[in-house]
Records
---
Amino acid sequence: MDKQNLSALQSMCPPDHQYKLGLFLDYAPHTDADEVPDPYYGGADGFDHVINLIEIASESLIKALKYDV
């Protein structure tokens, strides 16, 4: 969800599979964020913002999986 998580995965991932890793919001390029923020620091609106980002990225990911198979 964020660059710290991505870095941890990259350190464990075999080099020939690195290209498969990325940030979740790469599937939501038209949003205002590149990482999923921690909703606890966004006040009451933080949770709404995060769920909106996740829903947008999820829809795009599902489309990508459907057409990439």
---
Amino acid sequence: MQNDFSEALEMYRNNLKKHSLKATPQRMAVHKAMLELGHASADIVVEHIKETGEAPVTTASVYNILSQLADLGIYGRRLSSNNKMFFDVNTARHFHLYDKERHIYRDLMDDELMEIIESKLKKKKFKGLSIESIDIQIVARPTGRSRRTR
């Protein structure tokens, strides 16, 4: 697991270099937090970084780093139902399962379902538009059992 983490950080450093960005302590701390969290808003990342003591950061600086990395395609973006921007470290094609009460995202990997949806959409014509990507979010709420365990 540690080797995967080290490889992910090295890939990230290379990606930053490719975009002429420095691997500053703040950028590295943000990425380490995102690797551990998966989906997070800037304030969640700040809290995580402050707990680890990785680097001095502010919510504004973390938001700017996350936004810049999302603009470059290194992270994805998700807007929660309470209008908070979440960022996603997983840029592979996948669906999202969103808990609208707790504002938590989970990845749903299902290549078979994705292929069914893609093949269905390829047969459709959208006047003046071509499909660039598919972004499906399944909105859910906790069941009675998981509500009691919060």
---
Amino acid sequence: MALTGLLLIGFLLMHMFGNFKMFLGEEAFNHYAGWLKGETPDGGILYPIMPAGAFIWVFRTVLVAAVLLHVYSALTLWQRAKAATPSAYQAKRTLSQTYSARTMRWGGVILAGVLIFHLAQFTVHSALTAGSFGATYADSPYKMFVGEFQQWWMVALYAIWMATVAMHVRHGFWSAFATLGANTSPKAHTVLNACAWAVAILLYIGFIFAPVAVLFGWIH
């Protein structure tokens, strides 16, 4: 659970960095998207160590495996926690938890559902909301991004989703490092908590910045 969670947080940070290339213009963002897929003249990322276009499939495979393992771990831990819950004939005590900690399970379910839509929208292109998928979008990931986030309701939905992501990451980051043995003292607890909040806030601002810029016409 901890290792796959940290891997997924690392992916989110890389994804956020890629989205900032929207501010460099259409050519830069489209080159970045093509570079990841091995479609650029230089062969793309990790070429010639890997054949052109191979990296993206290896990356997707690892990412899907991490998500599946994360979900499996969550279900396993939930079943163990349920089995350890005292019955109605025994004393039952509710532990003091943050809101993000109490909503981790249902938050994860919501994240999974919206993630499927997000992939259908920007990866498979079967759920684009700004019109049917045509040559304009097919030739320019930049225009696809702009077209989708010119709609205020899409930006609002994305902002809510990213708030859920940030809450999940805040608790997950702290919990992962605590699980791996980093929570060794009150000072370490404070540092971990501060780092968890910093990563969560960074991801939220970083992911919502480009869609908001599109909505207000700063990116067009």
